[in-house]
Automatic annotation (TrEMBL):
Entry binding sites for 5-phospho-alpha-D-ribose 1-diphosphate: R100, K104, H106, E126, D127, L128, I129, S130, T131, G132, K133, S134
Protein's UniProt keywords contain Magnesium: yes
Alphabetical UniProt keywords: Glycosyltransferase, Magnesium, Pyrimidine biosynthesis, Transferase
Pathways per UniProt: Pyrimidine metabolism; UMP biosynthesis via de novo pathway; UMP from orotate: step 1/2
Enzyme category, top tier: transferase
Family per record: Belongs to the purine/pyrimidine phosphoribosyltransferase family. PyrE subfamily.
Protein name as it appears in the record: Orotate phosphoribosyltransferase
Residues of the Phosphoribosyltransferase domain: 59-157
Name of the coding gene: pyrE
One function term, GO molecular function aspect: orotate phosphoribosyltransferase activity
Residues where orotate binds: S130
Enzyme Commission no: 2.4.2.10
Cofactor(s) essential for the protein: Mg(2+)
Function of the protein: Catalyzes the transfer of a ribosyl phosphate group from 5-phosphoribose 1-diphosphate to orotate, leading to the formation of orotidine monophosphate (OMP).
Length: 214
């Protein structure tokens, strides 16, 4: 669910402007999972544009507090959400921790890095939601440390049905600055893509795991 429509449209436009999101229905990308995709999203580019990262920081800080109440800790999911998570925590004057994909194999073998006390209220910040699997693994790592997860806030989601099911099963509320639906609407309006290309992009979202396969 998006925080609000105005933010969703503005965020989508900014991501397109800096090529954090690329749309190429005619020459699809291949994701690490092997899926063929007409869209590629790299929200880490936001950090290289001060005015845009400040916008993302401010929208996150304002809407997180409005939606979840002020938490005790902000947690970022490594590695894509560490940078923006720190910005949000700084804006809210809160401690920050981050969650590795798996525990370190040496030293203290931490998966959650930073100081976290049992029972603290945590909002998790993520850069991108596809199936939600890796994001929810971070939630479980925080829960295993005794954290009370208030919810998750992400920059962008593809809006896959499987992600919605995964978050529902994990009992986690997810809110995003923007999503696929608002992105496509804005992209047609601003002539980043044609209506025919929009149709192709909509087809992909219906069955992303099999799209483009013969």
């Amino acid at each position: 669910m998006i925080f609000n429509k105005d933010t969703a449209e503005k965020t989508a436009e900014l991501l397109l402007q800096i090529n954090a999101i690329k749309l190429n229905p005619e020459n699809p990308f291949t994701w690490a999972s092997g899926w063929k995709s007409p869209i590629y999203c790299d929200n880490r580019l936001i950090l290289s544009f001060p005015s845009i990262r400040n916008y993302v920081r401010d929208e996150f800080a304002k809407n997180i507090e409005k939606q979840f109440g002020k938490p005790d800790v902000i947690a970022g999911v490594a590695t894509g959400a560490i940078g923006v998570g720190i910005l949000v925590a700084e804006s809210l004057g809160l401690p920050f921790v981050y969650v590795r994909p798996e525990p370190k194999k040496h030293g203290r073998q931490n998966q959650v890095e930073g100081f976290l006390q049992k029972g603290q209220n945590v909002v998790v910040v993520e850069d991108l939601i596809s199936t939600g699997k890796s994001s929810l693994m971070a939630v479980e790592a925080l829960r295993s440390e005794g954290a009370n997860i208030k919810g998750m806030a992400a920059i962008f989601t593809y809006g896959f049905g499987v992600a919605e099911e995964n978050f529902k099963e994990a009992n986690i509320d997810l809110f995003t600055l923007s999503n696929y639906e608002n992105l496509l609407s804005l992209a047609v309006q601003k002539q980043y893509i044609t209506e025919d290309q929009q149709s192709t992009l909509l087809e992909w979202s219906e069955s992303p795991s099999t799209w483009g396969q013969e």
